[in-house]
Amino acid sequence: MAIETPEYEVLKKNRNIEIRQYPGYIQAEAEVPGQNYRSAIETGFNILAGYIFGNNTSRKKIDMTSPVKTSVSEKIPMTSPVKISGKYKYKVAFIMPSRYSLGELPVPGDKRIGFREILPHKMAVIRFSGFFNEKRINDSIKKLVNFLQDEGIDTEGEYIIAGYNPPWIPGFLARNEVMAKIRE
């Protein structure tokens, strides 16, 4: 069975960077402490996986989707270079299957989980492979920032790190992305 991923339209492409138009969707999210993206993903993933595996008021299992999205909850200026070190709060999110409305999702058993309706939006995205590590993430952010500055594109909010594969996929086959919301 294929894992559902939000559909999008590619508006512009330049090598491994795309400008995409996304439809609206609902995401479940948890804010977690972490030393880096990897530690935050591990903690947040377990919280959110519990929810979709039945830790909710109706004990209902919900299909897994991809990507798993992670961002720093504290605002970091979108400048280059970006260095992330020390302990931060991160937001880890699962996109809910498209067949659910906000009112149809069961109430989480874990109070750290909340839902947010994401409206249609444009994203600037750069793809990278390999396992999540700060160097790959920061290098990708720097490349994306340089592209956006060259194109005169303004963004808003935090960088989102998106992982599409389960942990047993070899790093060279893994699909990861850095995303930035384009200011309308």
How would you describe this structure to a colleague?
- It is a single chain.
- This protein is an alpha+beta fold and 184 residues long.
- It has a single domain (9-182), classed as Multidrug-efflux Transporter 1 Regulator Bmrr, Chain A (Alpha-Beta Barrel), CATH 3.20.80.10.
- Helices cover 18% and strands 35% of the residues.
- It has 2 helices and 9 strands; from the N terminus they run E-E-E-H-E-E-E-E-H-E-E.
- It has helices at 37-52, 134-151, and strands spanning 9-14, 17-22, 25-34, 68-72, 88-95, 113-118, 121-128, 155-163, 176-182.
- The longest helix has 18 residues, at 134-151.
- It starts with 8 loop residues before the first strand and ends with a strand.
Discrete helix count: 2
N-to-C series of helices and strands: EEEHEEEEHEE
State the low-pLDDT regions, or none.
76-86
Helices and strands: which structural class? alpha+beta
State the CATH superfamily name. Regulatory factor, effector binding domain
Rg calculated over all Cα atoms = 16 Å
Q: What's the N-to-C terminus distance?
A: 36 Å
CATH fold-type name: Multidrug-efflux Transporter 1 Regulator Bmrr, Chain A
Tell me what portion of residues adopts beta-strand conformation: 35-45%
Helical residue percent? Answer: 10-25%
Molecular shape: globular
Q: Report the mean per-residue pLDDT as an integer.
A: 90
Main beta sheet: strand number and arrangement?
Answer: 9 strands, antiparallel
Number of strands: 9
CATH architecture: Alpha-Beta Barrel
Strand order of the largest sheet: 1-2-7-9-8-4-5-3-6
Number of domains: 1
CATH class identity: Alpha Beta
